[in-house]
Each structure stands twice: as C-alpha cells, then as structure tokens.
Amino acid sequence: xxxxKVSVIWGEAFIDAPGMVTVKPSKSEAPKGALGPGxxxxxxxxxxxxxxxxxxxxxxxxxxxxxxxxxxMVPDRMPKSLLIIGSGAIGxxxxxxxxxxxxxxxxxxxxxxxLPVEDAEIAAVARKSFEKQGxxxxxxxxVTKLDKxxxxxxxxxxxxxxxxTITAERVISAVGVxxxxxxxxxxxxxxxxxxDIIAVDQFNKTNVPGIYAIGDVSGPPMLAHKxxxxxxxxxxxxxxxxxxxxxxxxxTYCSPQIASVGLTEQxxxxxxxxxxxxxxxxxxxxxxxxxxxxxxxxxxxxxxxTGQLLGAHMVGAEVTELIQVYVVxxxxxxxxxxxxxxxxxxxxxxxxxxxxxxxxxGRALNI
Length: 367
Fold this sequence. Notes:
CATH class of the largest domain: Alpha Beta
Low-confidence stretches: none
C-alpha cells in the first residue's frame, strides 16, 4: 500500500453521513506511519469489513470443545474424533483435512444434500468419495443439544424422526457466516441490509449514493477471489469505466476438490431452459488414472438451442485449477461447437473437460 501511496487510518470507523467518516481510537496499537483518529471526508466510501462465523443458540463456541473455523485453524491438539455441524465449503474442507490427518470425522447437515450450493450430481459423487475415506455423513439431520464434558462433547442428533447421540472430542460449527455490519452507522444512514449482509447491485453500490460494499460483507459467494475482483469492479464503476458483471467460480479445497461456475442443472431447469448435458468420468482419463486420482466427474450444461455454456461442475483432482477454462469460455460467450473444436493436450486432466463437451452430443472418444 505504501508503494501505491495508500494511506492507512488506524481506528474504529463510523459513517456519520454520505461522505463523512469519524474514526475513534482503536484498542490495538497502530502500525508505524498510520494516520490517527479524527473526521475524514470522501466522495466515495467503500465498506469492506468482512464477515465472521454464524453462531447458533446452544452451539456457542468456547474455543476449546466447540470451535468456529477461526479456532479450527489453530487447534491446541489433534483431536481423535470430530463432529462438524454444516456441510458447506468450510465444513467439508475441515472434514477432509482432519480425516486426512487421521481423525474420526462425522458431518451433520440439516439439508438433504451436502455442499448445498453445488450441483446435486456432483455433490453425490463427492459424498460417495468422502464416505469411502471414512467420513460419516448424516443429512436431513440436526444437532439439537451439546452436552459438554471435561474433554469431549456428547451431541444429540435428530435424523429422520429418530434421535441418537454421538461422542466427539471436539466440535466445529460451520453453519455459515454473517457480515460485520454493526456499529458502522448503516441504520442511521438508511443503508439497506438483508440477512446480515449489505445489499448491493452488480457494481457494489448500496441504495445510498456514495456508499459501496465489497467482499464478504456484501454477501455470497463469500470467496477471497470474488472479494478481490469486486474491489476492481467497484472502483472501475466509480471511475465510469463501465465494467462487466463478474463470472465467479466456486472452489472447495477438499479431497477430492470441487469447482463450479454458472447454473446447476436444477437451477437451469427452474429457469425453464431447454438444456443439453455432457458428462465425463475421471476413471476414463489417462492422466487421472496415472495419478491414482480416478474418482471424479466433469459435468457441463448447455442451452440446447444456442449452444451457450450455462454451467460447469467438477469433482476430482485439481479441478480448482481446471475450472478457469470454463470461466474464460463463459466470459467470452464460447459455444459448445467452439469448445468441441478446441484441442486439449494429451495426457492431461483437462482432456476430461473436452470429453464432457463432446459427450453432450454423444461424441465422447474414450467412453
């Protein structure tokens, strides 16, 4: 920031009015060179206060037996058994990580599908792989009580109308996040908020002129790369450069990895779109077999009338790297015909992406 001549004001900020910010002293020590408390004026104010873990009643973290993802990153010791509440990206990443290290892991999800925002078919493949690794997964289930002991927790779980108890050394609550919208003066200003986040348009403008919000505080998907690019889009919009709306890939860093962009099959059907779907399994890809990573699937969804790529969904090795091919294709409005003509190098995992496109027309070469 020094290189780019960005000034840092150290303190706790409150927006008094559009264009006016009051900064009060912070409890933490200011870094060298930072400006101090006072009143500051700016034509444009961007809120980027991030988010924090959501806390459910009865499952409050105590930073020992029950943790959020904050504490789970730096545990005091490696637990032998672990209960994870929630199967979104955060819950599944921790489940995969701790299981790889040898913990006995159980995941509880209130919805019928793990990874609820992902395509149902991809989520099913992922679940099968996780269970094969020894992760226990309970869906349509809810933790109704946590009984804390000296060094473990007894959880009461309701599943399908039946109740059971599970004992685990540690619990991770991964039930989502809430935006840090308190104590900023938003209510006084009339800034619209929805479900603990700030409501913004496609260029991150709030309903109050001159006030913007980017990153986790502006809502899902709550991803670092989304937040970073939102900053660029927001500034370009302020400068009148007419930026394009973002195409945001989602990535879950578990084993196997999961990545997606665009519409799921269900979402496309809900939009009443006539779709064509292509699939290709990693077990038919030479590079995946050579890596010992043959568990995976690539799924693509096209508009059957125009050939437009509506969505792409993958589970398997390094798919968080591969998804960008489809992101670029969607940004360039590439059609299925153009993707079929594209030459993918051999032997690579990316060949599975080409084969999935070919499969949408019954032309896959290796299945």
